Amino acid sequence: MTQTDSKTGFLDRNYFLLRRLHSLTGIMPIGVFLISHLLTNASIVWGRFDSREAAYGHAGAAVFQKEVNFIHSLPFLLLIEIFGLWLPIAFHAALGVVYAMSGKPNNQRYAYQDNWRYTLQRISGYVGIAFIFYHLATLRWGWTFLIPGGTQWSAEFAGSTLAQVMQGGPDGVTFKGLVVALFYFVGVSLLVFHFANGLWTSAITWGLTISAKAQKRWGVACLGVGASLMALAWAAIFGFMVLDVKSAKDAEAKILKGPLPVLEKAADAGGSSDLARTAK
Amino acid sequence: MITSLTNAPAGPHAKELAQRAANRRNAKVGRTVMVKVQRCDGPGKASRWETFKVTTERGMNVISALQQIAGNPVTTDGKKTTPVVWNSGCLEEVCGACTMVINGKVRQSCSCLLDDYAPNEGDTITLEPMSKFPIIRDLWVDRERLFHNLRRVKAWVPIDGTYNLGPGPREHPKDQEIRYKMSECMSCGCCLEACPQFNLEADESKWDTSFIGAHAINQARLFNMHATGKELAMERLDALMGPGGVSDCGNAQNCVKVCPKSIPLTESIAAMGRAVTLASFTKFFRS
Amino acid sequence: MAQRVIVVGGGLAGLAASVRIAEAGLSVDLFSLVPVKRSHSVCAQGGINACNEVARQQGYSEYEHFDETVYGGDFLADQHPVLEMANWAPRIIDLLDRMGVPFNRTSEGYRDLRLFGGSLFKRTHFAGATTGQQLLYALDEQTRRYESEGKVTKYEYWEFLGPVIHDGRAVGIVAQDLRTMQIRAFRADAVVMATGGCGLVYGKSTNSIICTGAAAARCYQAGAWYGNPEMIQVHPTAIPGSDKLRLMSESARGEGGRVWVPGIKQADGTWTKHPKTGADPKTIPANERYYFLEEKYPAYGNIVPRDIATREIFDICVNHGMGVAGENQVYLDLTHRDPDYLARKLGGILEIYEKFVGDDPKFTPMRIFPAVHYSMGGLWTQFTKGSYNPSEPRTKHKSGAAAPIQAAVGQGMAYGEINNMQTNVQGLYAFGEVNFAFHGANRLGANALLSCLFDGLFSGMSVVNYLKDGAPSKAPAEGLPSQPYDDSVKAEQNRVNALLNSVTPNAEPETNPYAIHKELGVEMTAACTVVKSEARLKQCLAKLGELKDRASRIRLGDNASWTNQTLSYARAVQDMLSVADAIAQGSIQRKESRGAHYRTDFPERDDAQFLKTTVARWDPASRGALIAFEEMDHTLIKPAARTYGKVDKTSKKPEPAASHT
Prior knowledge:
The complex is a heterotrimer of chains A (280), B (287) and C (661).
Chain A: H1 10-13, H2 15-46, H3 59-73, H4 77-101, H5 113-140, H6 158-167, H7 175-205, H8 212-242, H9 245-257, H10 263-269, H11 272-279
Chain B: H1 14-26, E1 32-40, E2 47-55, H2 62-71, E3 99-102, E4 105-108, H3 114-117, E5 124-128, E6 135-137, E7 140-141, H4 144-152, H5 173-183, H6 190-193, H7 214-225, H8 233-241, H9 254-258, H10 265-286
Parallel strand pairs in B: 1-5
Antiparallel strand pairs in B: 1-2, 3-4, 3-5, 6-7
Helix pairs in contact in B: 4-7, 5-7, 7-8, 7-10, 8-10
Chain C: E1 4-8, H1 12-23, E2 27-32, E3 48-49, H2 53-57, H3 62-72, H4 79-98, E4 113-115, E5 122-125, H5 131-148, E6 152-156, E7 158-166, E8 169-177, E9 183-187, E10 190-193, H6 214-221, E11 226-227, E12 232-239, E13 246-247, H7 251-254, E14 258-265, E15 271-273, E16 289-290, H8 292-296, H9 306-319, E17 330-333, H10 339-357, E18 366-375, E19 378-379, E20 428-430, H11 448-469, H12 471-474, H13 483-501, H14 513-527, H15 534-552, H16 565-589, H17 607-610, E21 613-619, E22 624-630
Parallel strand pairs in C: 1-2, 1-10, 2-6, 10-20
Antiparallel strand pairs in C: 3-5, 4-5, 7-8, 8-9, 11-19, 11-21, 12-13, 12-18, 14-15, 14-16, 14-17, 17-18, 21-22
């Protein structure tokens, strides 16, 4: 670990630092972002129960849109994205691949649960990289040719365009949409596993949990985290799969026009059809 | 530790152990068992399988089966062959010499009873050399890297020579118990054979940067716990922070499950994880 | 060019010697059949004896440790070396402690002690149930340290084939790499043999598979003398196995274990063989169980001293053929005890039985039989007496009485004298179990580890001084002509070639090394262990003659020029026969009973004739031993009857037996 040893390469000289940065980036920022991202996405479901947003006709789509708007209102968003997310993810991914390549899974012979998680951590890493790339490319960078149906995601119509991506087009769920949704299902699930399991192993790596009992206890906690995130992830996918594109688009359009003037009254009036009339 | 009175095994292998105990009860002395051995005439030579018939005796283990074969090495096809080459020593599971892969899992062959693994007439038991070390011949592998890795972590107490200098440091019995358990490691290599992160490395020049293995991490902890052994603590941690050190552990945790001495290897790995974490802060802020 | 020392054997004695010699600045080449960490020393379980502060304040002393050892050895050990060893014991424990051996601790953090056979004081230090393993590891670690500093070079998986002797002085060795099969000579200014015992001469024993005694045999055949070969310790309770015999601690009997065999009681009170002797022991009714120890020794029952237990078990099986299932085994039965109690008191040792036999001794009687355990005899060695030389030998030390001397270095042996633990061949030393010093006719429990370490640390200095002041200082091995080395290599190569050329696809049992070894073991176990007699020993010598003849025509089943284990094995079998011969000849000629040597035709100890060392010299002409009895050193303690306080046979109090563990 001596900096003066010029014969060894950069990777070897900073071996420990890189290893620990790899572990750290997995939790912060990537893990933290994952949690907030999943919460945001799941708002398409939990937003439905937000009565304050009922005036938009589709509360879920409205909450989701507002969440997206909030993110897009952040100053220097691109810089935050590049330095706070894309680079850490690229770093975590690149090193992760190097590290994962050094192992040779042996689950056939040693079919223990911990060993399966070891292997799955690596598989989920590989799949996760592919998924994140696809996810970013199609939705953030606008490589629509990779999307069956060619939907262009729009930040202003976040929920409805996303639903079109996941459903394969504007007219309800198609086979192409199912394929995309399935890919999302697999990719997101593996990433959630990757995060929860990584959270567990990082406690050993950093030496937070030492005794077997402590490791087990923390394992239960991580299982809880994983299960919760998994619920959010699956809820979001389900939410977009069943989202009514048209009503979502309506709600988004209203938000685009600006705040509703008589929200309280409208809310009192109840019923989305009434609201719709009022807005028009 | 009180042994279970009902004989019901516990722990990660409970099912397996219960199955073995059942096998043992049903096994009959004098039955014929097939011993399938992966053989190799030397480094770089191709491997082949040979199967031998063995007539079981009471309490027969894999070593006595191999001894029986050595007396008259004829395969089941009736082909006369050479005696199988293997390593053994104490035959009491304290020297670690006779480690091999039996029915797909690594363990000592001396404590491996045929009744447990091949309880019925005509059953087959499979013997392979450890795969993480270079083969010398047949079931004999060269585990020098394992000892090399003990040198990497300076697994010794740096005493001032063998002069008469009075007693060593006093020690609390609780610490002694922990150290004793860790010190029971017989360098058999089971933890390495089962580890997906520890892999065959024939090139000696790469040993210093390849994964050091659970056994050596455990020894680093053992000596860092000792009042005099601590003297080299930082050097041991340096070795563990470098390439192939403790961060190369992938937490598959197979090591602790195959350790014949039930050494808490994963706890040692975590303890050393903490030690290097703290050491890195110390280094960053102090030096 | 630096002076070099060769150490053969990487057990406790060899490693202690290597560390000591390397520390003195000399280069050490360490040869071992196995990676040194796998040496047989790992098998020692019980502990290591030394006077300690607690025992001292209770009235114990180094002197008493010395007395116990001499007494336990039935006065056959030279006394001065034993005194020095006992005096050094506490400092050896201190050193091990400093090396980090995890000795068991008291609640205050001091080293804990346990009571062991042969003493009334707690004087045995221990590390769990694997003291030998822990001590070996500590020395292995120190050796590794010197190895990484380049002071020790290890040659693991190298087999010692013989010393190179030039001008009557050992100047190196010939060894073979067991992997590549390369044979080469190594120059050295001194050679230390630390190759352990010869249990494999008995086929199966409690020894490791590497304890063939072949290395000692090769020195013996090269002219080194062999002392007290007939003194072989047999442990009464071992677990029979088809590969080896594993120790079953005496505590199993101490906790109420009953020894019996199935039998039928006749009208005259004698017992005969049971018709269904191999049946499930639980099905044998109480009146068909022959508790022979309890019946023959009503006072002591199952806790008779070990030598008696050993002899009786042996008698029942070998002479009366009443062993369980007709085999050489008897039941050691604990099933009448509460399993919970057993688990608490004997958990560890009962697990060993279950692990290797498969039966749970809490519910099924164990099958046990005596097993060869330790060779007190070995290469004959010299010593220089130390400063303590009373005008008259003292009587036996009264336990707890004030010691006549306070321990100090150099009272027993003169420290650093170059002949300490040197064989009759100049420059050839023997340390540890391979020499004959310290244990006389019987070894005391927990003294074996001590003698190994003591040899390495104490006599290691003698080796250092030999290089400094002895012959090597004038004529270093480095400058010697290459001819003696070349000749030795050639001779060994010829022997190997002859063996390799013998390879035959269909080896008859007649010349099959495995068959010869098996027969050797059976014969030696029957004739040269527990009970010996002239008639049986003569028969044994005849059998050995036959085996020697067959071994000279040995045929291998493997002619590989790479990692040929059969070759090494066959060669060891040939050499083991010379040790077997020395054991048998020594047994025949020692017409008395002493310690582990029991002759039915001479059941008493005979100090007038046999308070002497048996010295076996190899006779190349007859390819056998020439036995002579040499005067020995008994100037410190007068030989007394070895009774262990036994008053008479009806005494209710069991005598503490000398422990063998």
